[in-house]
Design goal:
The protein is mainly α. The protein has 24 helices and no strands.
């Protein structure tokens, strides 16, 4: 019965997600519905999770009935908007061939095998990360036991990092509500379903633009990244952030290439999930809003540019709730210290030590395989054809790295301990982003080389 309850929750997510995608103009036919079923599940997951978080901030208990009614309202809103939004036409931009189909099929089989192995690991392994049992899972349990967001002993506020945004524990608490049992053993399977849906969503989003011979092998590599495999089923909030980051990044990349408002709406949804997943997610959406605004400022209507601010605004209710309830700030760092030159100068040794230690977490083969070297090879070709996309990719990763350097620089915590206990996790966001964007980068880079070959052939024959 517990599993049936969680399955019902995922079906509800999918139904709401289809309504959201209808509102964006992405799903208007049976074929597009089949292709985007993974994206529908995750769109509903994000939309219901965000709206439930706001409902809990307003004082609700977050019961299964309340969440179901809220989901129905979100779905109704999507259907109403869809009556006025135009359908997004997505013609194929690639040609099929036997060799390409064979490579694509091989990549798909490899991806399915990797997800099957990940399922086996999730079912057999017990999450052992300290953060999971110190505050991520207890916060979800507290939401159920105390009936929402409250302060005081045994509540959301009484565990480590009380200032962290609430999306991840809200989603886990919702799973408990629908399962009618506060059983953490259900969560790894649910997180695997969300991870699997992410690959289906990326494949559906990119299907019309990226040839299967590129799409499925690159997604298979993403699924096999060691650090990503360790995160799925870990019960850490990083899982929620990474899923939202990957989809927000790809949606933003598609908007840069096609200037379709539907993709920017999709970015607004998953960017809002990023902001409410972890504190660093809020930093990323501010940076991404600036990058996308600079790149698209000349060619985008004001309404589209306003959508870039939605993820930033999504964080404001949580900031307000935290201030009203006197939730203590994060003790590990304060960005306000950047305004004190004397403080920074006294800690210059931490800065140089961080710059020496942190890069290994971004370029380590046993964590990321060849993610960064391959991206570095592709980006010069992409920059010639799609400079906006290249700037977006480079800028987002650079902001992630610089942000981490600043945190370790200004933090009062012992530096070696802080880096060793968090460096592998704080690097995951921008690198999962670049890995999820890899199919687009590879497709655009190869298109650049194909164009050069075609031009050379025409010159040779003329």
């Amino acid at each position: 019965m517990k599993v049936i309850g969680v399955a019902g929750l995922d079906l509800m997510f999918t139904a709401v997600g289809f309504a959201v995608l209808y509102g964006l103009g992405l799903v208007r036919s049976r074929a597009s519905g089949v292709r985007l079923v993974g994206l529908a599940l995750l769109s509903g997951w994000a939309a219901v999770g965000i709206s439930t978080s706001f409902l809990l901030m307003a004082g609700a208990a977050g019961t299964a009935t309340e969440v179901a009614l809220l989901a129905a309202a979100v779905a109704a809103g999507g259907l109403v908007v869809g009556r006025f939004a135009p359908a997004l036409r997505q013609p194929h931009t690639w040609r099929s061939s036997l060799s390409g189909a064979a490579i694509g099929a091989g990549g798909l089989l490899l991806l399915l095998a990797s997800l099957a192995e990940l399922f086996r690991n999730v079912r057999l392994a017990q999450p052992a990360k300290w953060d999971a049992w110190a505050f991520w899972v207890p916060k979800a349990e507290a939401i159920v036991y105390t009936g929402g967001f409250h302060t005081g002993p045994g509540t959301l506020e009484s565990f480590a990092n009380p200032d962290y945004p609430p999306l991840a524990p809200t989603l886990d608490a919702t799973a408990f509500r629908f399962a009618r049992s506060v059983d953490p053993g259900l969560l790894p399977l649910q997180h695997w379903i969300i991870a699997t849906a992410m690959f289906a969503a990326l494949a559906g989003l990119l299907w019309n633009r990226v040839h299967p011979a590129i799409l499925f092998p690159t997604l298979a590599v993403l699924s096999m990244l060691p650090i990503y495999q360790h995160d799925v089923g870990s019960l850490l909030g990083d899982e929620t952030l990474l899923t939202a980051f990957a989809l927000a990044g790809v949606a933003a990349g598609l908007w840069l290439l096609e200037s379709k408002a539907a993709y920017l709406g999709l970015y607004a949804l998953f960017g809002s999930a990023m902001a409410l997943a972890k504190n660093e997610g809020f930093t990323y959406v501010i940076a991404i809003a600036v990058l996308l605004g600079l790149v698209g400022l000349r060619r985008s209507p004001r309404v589209q540019l306003m959508l870039l601010a939605v993820p930033v605004a999504a964080m404001l209710p949580w900031k307000l709730w935290s201030d009203l309830n006197h939730v203590p700030p994060n003790p590990y760092y304060r960005f306000s210290n950047l305004l004190h030159p004397d403080y920074l100068a006294d800690r210059s040794g931490r800065l140089w030590h961080t710059l020496a230690e942190l890069p290994q977490y971004y370029g380590s083969f046993d964590r990321w395989l060849l993610t960064l070297p391959v991206a570095a090879l592709l980006l010069p070709f992409v920059a010639r054809r799609r400079p906006g996309l290249a700037l977006f990719a480079i800028g987002t990763v650079a902001v992630g790295f610089i942000g981490n350097v600043i945190v370790y620089w200004v933090s009062p915590s012992p530096l070696d301990w802080y880096i060793s206990t968090s460096g592998d996790r704080t690097s995951t966001g921008p690198l999962i982003f670049i890995a999820a964007l890899m199919p687009l980068l590879a497709a655009e880079a190869l298109a650049q080389t194909d164009e050069k070959t075609a031009i050379a052939a025409r010159l040779a024959t003329s």
